[in-house]
Amino acid sequence: MKFNLIGLIILLGSATSTAQNRFDQQPVSDATLRFIKSLTADQKTICTRPWADTNRTQWSNLPLEQVNRDGLRLDQLQDSQRVLIHDVLRTILSEQGYQKALFIMQYDEDTHTRLTAAKVPIAHRYGHEKYWTWIFGSPGVNKEWGFKFEGHHLSINMTFSAKGVSCTPHFTGINPGLITKGMNAGKYLLYHESELGKNLFVSLSEAQRKKAHIDTLPFTIDVRTQNGKEPFLTAQDGLPYPEMNTKQRAMVMQILNAWVDNFHPDIAGPKKKLMNTYLNQMRFVWMGTSSVHDLHYYGFLGPGWVIEFATRDQGIQHFHTLWRVMPDDFGIKL
């Protein structure tokens, strides 16, 4: 049977978006309003902001003290209110995405415990309570409003309007991705993001690898897209998507899904369709050595959307990842 890539893309899109289903904004709006109703007057002042508040279009993955966050922190909530904020997260994330978020927060608590035991002075920067929430505008179906949930290694940025839903920029990170010691040895968070990118690089021919391998790895490498207008997004270096074979193109779709499927299927489906329109403009780039076992960076870069994966200077299992869809980041063009 001849492999049909276009058929695969259509199948992937239809499986998640169910023939142009629109995301039902009522559940997330209702869940957010219940959370707001539970807040005290002081909590509302901290958490609820005007639509034009500059915090709405800013994000960071850094821990406490390395970035100033002025939203409402989890340890400033009562238990019943924390239940309600998790209700909101479950309405926008898929089961996969929600579990990743929970693991990232738990890993941050593990970091706090480990550094505290070692009497490291910066231990207080970390912990599962150090995640913040903001709500911008007035939640409601067909209204323009935003929701942000953010802390170390996690930034969720949602925008809702009558025109649709934006879920980028979306940052996930972990340290370590793969645990190798103790009772948790074998746990591997962001497994697909890490392994699929390495598999794609390994699959490249020598000629393809020469194009994809654009540089050695700078020691301080991180995700590089800040405002979505960086010159490297429109540069010509890297391996163009049209020069990949059928098997490699299918692997690209798997990698894309590792990020997009973190969201509710009716959010993810339309994003996949939008991203498909930019595929022929995308380039796969790799920085590091020719070995996937060394520190490395890979990215799918282009003017429409970007996926970045970096192993950080603290070790091969310290991951920073970023997904952006520039046409609707922060709902700018919704």
Keywords:
13-stranded mixed β-sheet, 334 residues, 13 strands, 19% strand, alpha+beta
Strand percentage, roughly? 15-25%
Give the biggest beta sheet.
Answer: 13 strands, mixed
Distance between the termini: 41 Å
Number of E-state strands: 13
Number of helices: 9
The poorly predicted ranges are 5-20
What structural category arises from helix and sheet content?
alpha+beta
Counting structural domains, the number is: 1
What average pLDDT do the residues reach? 92
Give the overall shape, derived from the CA principal axes.
globular
Supply Rg. Answer: 20 Å
Helix content estimate: 25-40%
> Order of helices and strands, N to C?
HHHEEHHEEEEEHHEEHHEEEE
Structure description:
By secondary structure, this protein is an alpha+beta fold. It has helices at residues 5-17, 26-38, 41-47, 79-92, 95-117, 191-203, 206-212, 246-260, 265-276, and strands at 48-49, 72-73, 131-137, 145-151, 154-161, 164-166, 170-174, 213-215, 239-240, 283-288, 296-301, 305-311, 319-325. The chain has one domain (5-331). It contains 9 helices and 13 strands. Strands 1, 2, 3, 4, 5, 6, 7, 8, 9, 10, 11, 12 and 13 form a 13-stranded mixed beta sheet that branches. Helix 1 (5-17) packs antiparallel against helix 9. The longest helix is centred in the first third of the chain and has 23 residues, at 95-117. The chain is globular and about 60 Å long.
